[in-house]
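Summary of Year 1 activities. Much of the first year was spent building the evaluation harness for sequence design. The harness presents a backbone, in tokenized form, and records the residue chosen at every position. We chose the following record to illustrate the format because it has been used consistently in internal testing since the harness was completed.
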């Protein structure tokens, strides 16, 4: 029997940062840690005012306390319709959020950036706990809702299928086929639109060989572990480019 799970605000538990960093390094593929978003942006998530939007799942007490889950999010200064959410999804909202702080812009929405859960604790509905907690926080602070550039967790098994087709697949119950899309859907989120260029990651061929453990001897598209779409390699230019689509979904809280 595992200990009870608690959700705490990072703003109240900044001492958890080393454990958070370790969990992220252990659970995300190397190439996903090379996004075009400046490293300084990620560091700012854990400082005021952004620390208020990061929530941590922990279990145990004292020396036995463990970080087992995390939801990262930001306040978003979005005044347009949800249908106008940016095609550059994840990359753009991160930049918008950082700029909004500097310019002191009002924010009506929260955007989740990612959810990370320890492998040992998968199957314990920690993502649901984290998302529900963020929704309660958003409601308490009078936000209109939460938008999420959802990264489907099983799309990497089907890298050559079109994203627009994959997100329409259903399971035997008529629910979304993908588990992560289904989790959001079950919690009340609605499909909005595809963000076709949500995350762009570029690097030299040597970079990509290091990040993936593969070799790229010629031009072309390559399926990579954990990649939702193929990696494009240009040998002459010595560059590999990965452009990941996500699905914008919206959780109303009012």
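For this record, the design step produced the sequence shown next.
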């Amino acid at each position: 029997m595992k200990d009870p799970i608690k959700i705490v605000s990072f703003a109240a538990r900044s001492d958890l940062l080393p454990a958070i960093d370790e969990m992220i390094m252990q659970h995300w593929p190397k190439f996903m840690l090379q996004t075009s978003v400046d490293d300084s942006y990620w560091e700012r998530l854990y400082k005021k005012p952004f620390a208020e939007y990061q929530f941590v799942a922990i279990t145990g007490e004292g020396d036995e306390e463990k970080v087992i889950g995390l939801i990262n999010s930001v306040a978003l200064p979005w005044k347009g319709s949800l249908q106008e959410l940016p095609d550059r999804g994840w990359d753009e909202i991160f930049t918008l959020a950082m700029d909004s702080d500097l310019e002191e812009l009002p924010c009506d929405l929260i955007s989740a950036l990612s959810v990370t859960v320890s492998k040992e604790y998968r199957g314990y509905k920690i993502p649901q706990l984290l998302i529900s907690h963020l929704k309660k926080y958003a409601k308490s602070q009078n936000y209109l809702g939460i938008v999420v550039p959802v990264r489907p967790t099983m799309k990497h098994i089907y890298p050559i299928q079109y994203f627009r087709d994959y997100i329409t697949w259903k399971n035997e119950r008529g629910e979304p086929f993908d588990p992560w899309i289904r989790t959001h859907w079950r919690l009340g989120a609605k499909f909005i639109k595809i963000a076709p260029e949500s995350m762009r990651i570029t690097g030299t061929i040597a970079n990509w060989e290091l990040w993936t453990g593969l070799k790229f001897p010629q031009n072309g598209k390559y399926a990579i572990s954990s990649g939702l779409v193929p990696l494009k390699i240009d040998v002459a230019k010595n560059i590999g480019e990965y452009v990941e689509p996500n699905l914008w979904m919206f959780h109303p809280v009012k």
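The first strand starts at residue 5 and ends at 9. Quantitative recovery figures across the full test set are reported in Table 2.
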